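LAB NOTEBOOK - FOLDING QUEUE
OPERATOR: T.R.
BATCH SIZE: 2
PURPOSE: Compare the predicted structure-token outputs for two unrelated chains run back to back under identical settings.
PRIORITY: normal
REVIEWER: second-year student, initials M.K.

ITEM 1
FIELD SEQUENCE / FIELD STRUCTURE:
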Amino acid sequence: MKLWQSILAGGLLAVAQSATVEASDWLILIYMAANNNLYPYAQLNMRQLQTYGSNNNAKVIVQITQPGGSTSRYSICKNCSRRLVYQGKVNSSNKKALSDFLIYGMRNFSAKKIFVDVWDHASGYVNSGDFALDRSICYDQTYRTWMRSVDLRDALRTAYQSTHRKIDILGYDACLMQMIEVGAMVAPYATIMVGSEETVPDDGFNYTAMLRPFRTGTLSSVNFAKSLVRDYYAFYKNGSESVTLSAINLSKMLLLERNVNTVATLLKRCLSNQIGSSVSTTLQNCLYSNTCLHFSLYSYIDLGRWYQTVIANLGDFNVTDPSIVTSLETALRAGLVLLHNAVISTTAINEDSRAMGLSICFPYYVLYPSYANSPFASSNQWVSFIRQYLASRSQVDDLARAAMLRQRFLAHKQRALLK
């Protein structure tokens, strides 16, 4: 979420000290790391949750860290929040704070299905040094620290090992998290992933709309995920922000990850067998093509649109063994089918209207150390391909284009409200 703004004073709505634990169809666990400039929007989202509150269809539990670090857990009711636990000062960027909350929720509230919502600033998979950022998700202003992507994975793994419960829907009310790298990392611990390839406006999810279906009934996991995407579109369709949201079936993630590995391996072979610089130049042109969709962190590109762009330009590949290009086209087309099968629902508005549901990191100038040393890099040839591509590209031209992309990023940041 969201541009840095001054933190407004004020507390949550009516708070009581008692709580009643009841069985429900859904347990909704919301981890609000709001010890930063997003706190006013945490208050807004809490009020939205209290419009309908919990019932036997959906039990809502929130852990919120306020400015200064004061942290409490609440049961959300209609028109009020009942405090369950006061935890004192907590570093909300600490992975243990997240795993402890998830374990607490799963052990103390009986439910058939679980939705976990991680709420705060984020920058996707990469702990990026680009644009003077060093972050992944859950910024805590008191400690001035972030939760790294591997910390998020570790928190989910700890909760799974402690409870033997897999999360039915893992959602991110946070920017830029809907990446194949993130999906591959969390797939062992969740069934569906809901998030945005793009930045998320300050208001985030519409929590009133989120709970509305549970007033009179319940939803399957797939229909709940579709409802989140549909409500997001309805909330932002008349605005000026470029927004995306998608729901991904994580059971399909391994096949898609393997496809990216195959594509990367074939691209490496094309680079090694290119005549002149035909392959590196074509890939460079594809990356900067208008048909290749970049997001606010310009190293993040829409995976499906990039696949389509490369397919459209394979005729410009000049290699010593043309069969490699044929195999590459087959793999790219297979990847598009796998992506389509993995996407349960997707929406995209304004500049990002061509988004297909899942992004990937493609550093256009320099390989981030955190990405080069990431779990995805160790298990997939994609990062090795990026390294080979960066070594082969036209550096003079690329420097000029990198400067252009940075200006486009800064212009986008000026007009966007980033969560």
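ITEM 2
FIELD SEQUENCE / FIELD STRUCTURE:
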Amino acid sequence: MIEPFRGYVRTENKRPCQKFGGGEKLLTPDQASGCYEYAGVLNGEFTVKDMDDAAEAEKLHRLVVDKDINCRVMKTTRGMQFFFKSSRWVRKNLTHEIDALGLEFDTSTGRNAYCVLKFGGKQRDISDMTFSAIAKRLTDDGVPTPANKKVWQPAVVQSILTNEKYKGGFKCGTPHVTEDEVKEAFLAAFNKLLDSRDELIENCRIAQGILCDTAAIDTELDELRREIEVVVELSRKAINENARVAQDQEAWTKRNNGYLERHRIASERVGELEDLKQERSTKKLTLDAFICELESRQLAVDEFDERLFAVAVDIVKVRGDGQLAFRFKDGTEI
């Protein structure tokens, strides 16, 4: 895929520290990688859809995977950014817009737009391909699946890429099971789960209230953001004062470095809390989908459904005797 950036700029608290809209020389990837924070300047051929709500971003990500939409995806501290290879339909940057799916988003486009790629010392990785795109590539190249089938499914690719056994240096002693055996065992396990459907739904809702609550996180985030605002203002005043009035430079540097350290500590903590909040929001979305599937299944399931499998199952374990154990999204194991 074409590189979406024409260069890079150093940033501080997500704001550029250098000009880049008038043909100025930009940083190379090697130069940018050494910065504590930096951003990529778009090359004018991409539109970036930025979604700060983790749950809504996950909905769009699922659509991208399911529909095999060719785009790059970058996880941010709060949500995700989607890089689409087209600028024809978006002529200017937008904020707080609502799309046809009812999802709120911002967009960046044009040669003067930028995306933060490293923040708080943490690099943000951009994935080039979805599991669906990888599955399509393997199918098109004629590579057989582990079950010796011609068509790859996204769930199979995901299981391989997240399985330690495929990373090398691991001798697998797990008994071999076929795809049909997994499907048959899943139907038996899921139907057993339906026997206590109402109780399970109630337990899921209780778990949501405990595991997905973000009130305390939001309170601490508000306090940290106020701290960052205070420190930024103190540092700004110190810089202006140093420019106007002669200062003891050693004392001034020590004082300003203290402000920068407070800013760093608060920013890193904000990143940690936003990651935790996103995890809890994603967990809530996962449980919502699981509850919805349970509520819609009044009768036993007699035919394998790949979407149901993806929504319901967290992990499949193969025991030493070849028996399969399914851990569902609510934590129940059968």
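REVIEWER COMMENT (ITEM 2): Residues 40 and 107 are 15 Å apart (CA to CA).
FOLLOW-UP: none requested
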